[in-house]
Every structure is written in C-alpha cells, then in structure tokens.
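Reminder: ligand-aware prediction takes two inputs, not one.
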Amino acid sequence: MAVTITANLCPQNHKCPAVLVCPVEALSQEGLLAPEVDADLCTDCGECAKTCPTGALGIEQKL
Ligand code: SF4
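Here is what comes back for the chain with iron/sulfur cluster:
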C-alpha cells in the first residue's frame, strides 16, 4: 500500500484536514499547497485518505 496524492484534485485553498489526522505526522503542507507525504514515516494506515474531502489523497496497492 502507498499513499498517493493527486495534486489536481486538491483545491489547494485550505488547510489540509488530513495533515491533522495523520498519527505519525507524515503529512506536511506548505502554505495552502497540496500536502506532501514522508514515505519513511508513513505507515499506510489510510486515515488521511478517509479524511480528504476531494479524494486527492488515496491508498494504492504497491506492485
Ligand atoms: S496513511 Fe496514515 S501514516 Fe500515512 S500519511 Fe496517511 S494518515 Fe499518515
């Protein structure tokens, strides 16, 4: 599994709510831009994908 961020689905006009729910602080956001994920910290728990209101954050099966 891996978190995917589809920047063109992110309105990039708000504080990302998913940043606040990540239990390991793997998501960060610069200003109001789309968030970025630190793959070394992320545990693929999926909480961010559940919180994202636009579907810009997703969980994808790793090949
Ligand atoms: S999948 Fe979980 S650990 Fe990874 S960025 Fe999203 S909320 Fe954080």
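The chain has a mean pLDDT of 93. DSSP finds two helices and four strands in the chain. We will return to this case in the review session.
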